[in-house]
Amino acid sequence: MKDLWTVFYGAQSCSVDNGELCHADFGSMEDPFSCINQVQIDGTTAYVSQSAWIQTGTIRENILFGSPLDNQRYQQTLEKCSLLKDLKLLPYGDLTEIGERGVNLSGGQKQRIQLARALYHDADVYLLDDPFSAEYIMGALSGKTILLVTHQVDFLPASDMVLILQYSWMATNIENPEVSTLRLISVYLLIGFLLHSLFCAPMSFYDSTSLGRLLSRVSSDLSIVDLDVPFYLFFAVAATTNFYSNLTVLGVVTWQVLFVSIPMVYVAIFLQRYYFASAKELMRINGTPKSFVANHLAESIAGAVTIRVFKEEERFFMITFELIDVNASPFFHNFAANEWLIQRPEIISATVLASSALCMVLLPPGTFSSGTLSTHNILGIG
């Protein structure tokens, strides 16, 4: 097995028979070879996955992948990967926006884009995980160390070494005795109802809806419907009932206070309508960045091996933090709007209470009993 890793130090190429070896090389899974304790790779690395991983963004951003633009090398890369013809068919060339998971690209176009991403980085070691169009860049990578993981025997004659992996388990079965069967069945039923609604949606819904928005619908939105809506509904009914009952009692005890209370009711209705106009937009804006965060996390998890191989972890961490900051901004403004609304009814309540106390002071002595005054004060404060 020692000879297997010495190919990383020479201008050789090697073919292997199982794609999971690529993940073991870069620490994404436990090494399938028990006799190999550590894999050391000198120089820079580039990786082409078997299933094309494409980010949301432009084609140029996917090819550069955080590297500065070198026009000459960039054009050579496009030519070697046969992307020039594809770019002519797109409305904005390499500046065309790619949808999530590359939904507006064909399978061949996605493969050629990720091949161009690997070729543009001019790495020392190339790991090709069974790309069906590897012949595009095999000639361009002469003099490079290539580890080609493939089931295609056509590439074997060009290899300096062939390693076949067989009779090896890639995962371990794990059982958790603490989880009951009934609990698992209930969870699966809930997931089944949710999946049923998603499966009944038309295909156009998935083409136009990002993964982050779907995750937001089945996580935070369901939490709001199950927990927040019942609580706020109960609170609204209780507060409305308490308001009208207190206003009725105050009107009976000191009818003079109605001259102040009724205008305050109209002021409260005006504030409510003024707040709702902004609150709806704030709630919508507050929910939008959540889908961006979820979408970015889903993309990062799907392309974790590629990100690790290209050593772009720090850049993706910074993008995540920026998206979290963007998500926190509308939440802060929504919270500030709520505090603004809370302060105005408190001012109205204080005005009504002060006017009630003023009426009691100005009215002739003996108009109210001590019990009436106590009840009035309690209702006014409430």
TrEMBL record:
Record's GO cellular component terms: membrane
PROSITE patterns tied to this protein: ABC_TM1F, ABC_TRANSPORTER_1, ABC_TRANSPORTER_2
Gene3D superfamilies according to UniProt: ABC transporter type 1, transmembrane domain, P-loop containing nucleotide triphosphate hydrolases
UniProt-listed InterPro entries: ABC1_TM_dom (IPR011527), ABC1_TM_sf (IPR036640), ABC_transporter-like_ATP-bd (IPR003439), ABC_transporter-like_CS (IPR017871), ABC_transporter_C-like (IPR050173), P-loop_NTPase (IPR027417)
Keywords: ATP-binding, Membrane, Nucleotide-binding, Transmembrane, Transmembrane helix, Transport
Membrane keyword on record: yes
Record Pfam families: ABC_membrane (PF00664), ABC_tran (PF00005)
One function term, GO molecular function aspect: ATP binding
Regions crossing the membrane: 185-206, 227-247, 253-276
Segments forming domain ABC transmembrane type-1: 194-363
ABC transporter domain span: 1-192
Stated name of the protein: ABC transporter C family member 10
Organism of origin: Capsicum baccatum (Peruvian pepper)
